[in-house]
Specification:
This protein is α+β, with helices and mostly antiparallel strands. It contains 9 helices and 6 strands, in the order H-E-E-E-H-H-H-H-H-H-H-E-E-H-E. The chain has a single domain, classed as Beta-lactamase.
């Protein structure tokens, strides 16, 4: 008998379905999709609420969502693959490979910022570049972002403490492009996404997936925000419910302990994602 048909598994799925349905209503989420992986296979999936509230388009297991900062986990996986290939070491200075990484150090330390620091959010960099992209939904090209680094003031010296930084992860992705000799998006699709069979995960929104794309809702009162693609190194992805758990299952079971970074690097993972809060 298939494990998915076992009475206790079917009962667990029914309880999960009830809980997620109630949670979506209680929290006033626009919609969400969820999936459960059992022995590397999608054993259960469902959708709740709406992918588009205005058009009453239901969320389903085939709905695409922007995964935003979950992309950081792919960036760190790229780092570990290049490390395993002998192309970079975690404790090497980032500036050794990327001359655009010119962050001043106002602290009494000679310790340079390394790949380990960027991957684990311990470089001491601020959270965001000095642009209003959270308000405008328009993020400048990566070159414009990197041009602000010489004037940036770190918050802490490297390894002093954890400090979540979108800046650090964007810089990490850009440096890894130089090492791989391949654009970030191409590398991730070729070496991570496609080998895992995540056929419906991508950086681009094309007509083939647009009908299944969830619209994001920024707040209880704001209107719907159009999906945006930030920089080439921290892009919004659009996976369906089945793809994201497949990635999480592989990452949790197939990475050896010798090929991991400090725990802080994985803090952005939250699992399958919902369209953001609906209007109240």
């Amino acid at each position: 008998m298939d494990d998915r048909d076992a009475p206790e598994i079917r009962t667990a799925f029914a309880l999960l379905d009830t809980e997620l349905r109630a949670e979506c209503v209680h929290r006033k989420w626009a919609g969400m999709s969820a999936a459960v992986v059992l022995d590397q296979q999608i054993a259960w999936s469902n959708g709740y609420g709406f992918a588009n509230v205005e058009e009453r388009t239901p969320a389903t297991p085939r709905t695409f969502y922007s995964i935003a900062s979950i992309t950081k986990l792919f960036t760190v996986t790229m780092l570990m693959q290049l490390r395993d290939a002998g192309q970079v070491q975690l404790d090497e200075p980032v500036a050794r490979y990327d001359p655009t990484f010119t962050v001043p150090c106002p602290f009494a330390t000679t310790r340079p910022i390394t790949f380990r620091h960027l991957a684990s959010h311990t470089a001491g960099l601020p959270k965001d570049f000095p642009f209003p992209y959270w308000d405008t939904q328009v993020i400048p090209p990566i070159d414009a972002l990197l041009a602000t680094l010489p004037d940036m003031v770190p918050v802490f010296p490297p390894m002093a403490r954890f400090k979540y930084s979108n800046i650090g992860m964007a810089c990490l992705g850009h440096a890894l492009e130089q090492i791989a000799g391949q654009p970030y998006t191409e590398y991730v699709l070729e070496h991570i996404v496609r080998p895992l069979g995540m056929a419906r995960t991508d950086f681009a929104v094309n007509e083939a997936v647009r009908a299944d794309l969830a619209l994001g809702y920024q707040s209880a009162t704001a209107g719907a925000a159009p999906p945006t693609s930030p920089t080439t190194t921290s892009a919004d992805w659009r996976p369906r419910a089945g793809s994201t758990p497949r990635w999480r299952s592989w990452h949790g079971s197939s990475c050896s302990s010798s090929a991991t970074v400090p725990p802080a690097a994985g803090k952005s993972w939250t699992g399958p994602h919902c369209a953001r809060c609906t209007r109240r």
